[in-house]
Structures are given as C-alpha cells and as structure tokens.
Design brief:
two-stranded antiparallel sheet, 3 domains, 160 residues
C-alpha cells in the first residue's frame, strides 16, 4: 500500500504506473440508459447525475407522464395531467391567480374598523371623545390613571 498525496488515500502499488494513478474501476451498466460506465462507488447505479434524475422522474411520475386521469383546471378550465391526486390548477399562473382571488375575497369580507368615525363617552369624566384605538375606554391618559387609582382604593376598602 502506498499513500497517494493527491487523493489523500492509500492505494495498492500495482495501481500506480510511472508515478501516475491508474483508474482500475469495475465496469457497470447504467440503470437509466444502459450505457457502460466505470463504477467508482459501491452504491453507484447511474453513469451521471442527469441519468439519475431522469430515472427518478420516470419512476415517480410514470415514465414522464402522469398515471392519474386528466383533470380540469378550476381557474382557466383547461384539462391537464395532474402530478398529484389533489392538484386542481394546471400551472403556476393559475395557482397565483387562485391566491390573488382568495386574498381579494378575504379583504372584501373583512370590515374596516369603524371606531375612528364614532364618538364615545369617557368612563371616568363623561366627556365625549373620538377613540384612537378599538378598545379605548378613556378620553385621555390622566382619566385612565385616575380611574385605575379609584379602582385600587375601592378594592382596598373592600378587603378591610
């Protein structure tokens, strides 16, 4: 055994000829294209990455075609071969249009907050004011503090 500084691995002496490494890989047939290739790893089954991806695509989608029956797109009405059983849109454009419609519909159903257009009466002093938030109960901060202090005094007197 000799250490090869290029690959940083130990290799057998008979694999080196005149200082150059001789690739002595077994020949195998590609699972996809049946072409002969040097098998560099034990778990290698394909001659290239492209062949591996093509084979998995064929395997997962039935030779590049959908094994599911044709469906009709819910947006544009064209028939298409679905890639999944739950697919109901034919393209990225139809999926985007579906999302746009869904968002547009939710915006139309959501009422705009109407608290800014109404007048309320302060719970502490009784003055009329326009609220700045939906849950606002007092006209100004000092009314809120006074109401809170009054509540504290009442609870302390009830405890005694």
């Amino acid at each position: 055994m000799v250490f090869d500084p290029i690959t940083k691995r130990f290799i057998q002496k008979d694999h080196i000829v005149h200082g150059k490494k001789v690739l002595d890989y077994p020949i195998a047939k590609c699972k996809n294209c049946s072409k002969d290739y040097p098998k560099k790893r034990v778990d290698q089954s394909f001659c290239s990455t492209d062949c591996r991806l093509e084979w998995h695509t064929k395997k997962n989608r039935g030779n590049g075609k959908s094994s599911l029956p044709l469906k009709e797109c819910v947006i544009c009405g064209t028939s298409f071969p679905p890639t999944r059983p739950w697919s109901d849109k034919c393209s990225d454009e139809c999926r985007a249009e579906s999302r746009r419609r869904k968002l547009k519909g939710s915006r139309e159903l959501t009422p705009t907050p109407s608290f800014k257009n109404t007048k309320r009466v302060c719970e502490y002093c009784g003055n009329e004011y326009t609220p700045k938030a939906a849950n606002q109960r007092f006209c100004i901060h000092s009314c809120k503090i006074k109401a809170m202090n009054d509540r504290k005094v009442k609870t302390k007197s009830l405890r005694k």
